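Input sequence (425 aa), recorded before submission:
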Amino acid sequence: MSAPTLQEGLLARVQDAFRTLPERYLGGPAGSDTTYHVRLGDLGHTFEVRCTEHGARVRKGISKRPADVVIGTDAATWLRLRAGELSGLEAFRARTLYARGALDDAVRFEGLFRLPDGRDPLLRVHDVEISSPPSRRVSVLTTGEGPDAVLVHGLGAAKSSFFDCAAYLADNGYRVHAIDLPGFGGSSKPTLAPYSARWFAETVLGVMDALGIESAHLAGNSMGGRVVLEVGLGAPERVRSIAALCPAVAFVKRDFHPLVRLLRPELGLLPHKLRRGMVERQLWSMFCDPDALDPSIGDIVVDEFQRIFSSPGGRVAFYASARNVYLDRPFGPGGFYPRLTELQPPALFVWGTHDRLIPPGFRRHVAEALPRAEQIVLQDCGHVPQVERAEQTAGMLRRLFDRAEAAGPRRFAAPRRGARTRRAA
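Predicted structure, C-alpha cell format:
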C-alpha cells in the first residue's frame, strides 16, 4: 500500500477537524438555524455545517439546502483557526479568509465552538439586551484580553468596518468590543427609536453595563465618532480615552436645513431600495485611494448594506440617523461646540485630507472648542481611515490607549490654549 500524499494527509486532518465540531458546539442563539458552506479552495472540497440553537451537524459536500453563509479559505488557515492559533479577524486581516452572506452569522461561526482542550474561542459574537424603552438588542463582537476598548461604526456601516483595528488591538493587549449600533448590522432595528447621538450614547453605556465594564477606551468613525464624544460628555467617568475618526461633528453651514427638517424617517417604512450601482459609488467615494479596499471586501460591504436597507427598520434607522447628524445644532444653547469645551477624557481627532463628507477644515472648530485635544490630519486619506489606513490608524489608537493606561487614574487639568495639530504622511 502506497503512503498517502501530502494532499491526502492534509485532507484527513481537515476532515478530522470538521468531525469534532459537533462535540465542541457551544449552542447558537435562540431559534437560530444557519447553514454554512466552508470552501477550502486549495483542496477543492466544501463542507456543510448546519448550526441550530441546540446542535451542529457536519457533512462533506453540500445538500440541497441553500447556504446562509459561505466561508472561503485554505486548508492550512482552516486548521490554524480550529486549533486557536489565529482568530478569524486575523485571517480576515491577512486576506486569507472571505465570507459571503449575513456578515454577523459569518463572524459568529468561530465563537460557536470550543477550541481543543476545552479552551474558549478567540472571539465571539453575542447579543446584549437593553430594556430601557425602546428596548433593543445590540450585536457585539468581543476578542482579546486586557483593558476594554469599544469601537463604534459610522452611518450605514457596521462593526465589520473595525475588524482590522479590532484584530490589531486584541493582538496588543486589549479586550475589544466592536458593536453594531441599533438599526445597523446585526442589531435590532426598532422603528420608534430616536436614533440620536444621545440615544446611541446611552446604548453604548448600556452595553458596557451589561458586560460589566466600568470604564473603557472609545473609538468611533463618522457618526460613531460623534457618539463616543457624546458618551465622553455625558459620562466622563466611564471613559479612559476617546478617538474620533473623521467624526460627524455639527455642520456649521447648513444650507439645506429647512429641507432636511421636512424629510421624515417614517418614509423608510415605504418599500423601496437603492440601486447597487449607487451604493457602490457612494462606498468608493469615501476612499482617496480605491486600491486600499479589496474589491471582494467592497462587494461584501455593498451586499450587507443592501440586505439591511431592504428592511423597513433598517431604512428608518438610516434616514433618522442621517437627519439627526445633519440637524445637530453647532452653536447656541445646547449646541455641540459649546458643549465640546466640557469634554474631559483625553481625546484624539483624526481627519483625512480627501474626506468629502467631513473635510479636515472642521478641525478649526474643534481646536477653538477643545484646544488641548490632539488632532492628526492623514495625508491622502478619505472618510474611513480605519479601513483605508488600517495599520496606521490602529497604531494611533494603541498609542492613545497606552498613554491613558500609563497615566493611571485621570486628573483633569484646566484647558490650555493652542491645539496640537500635526500632519501625518
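Checked by second reader. Residues 115 and 121 are 6 Å apart (CA to CA).
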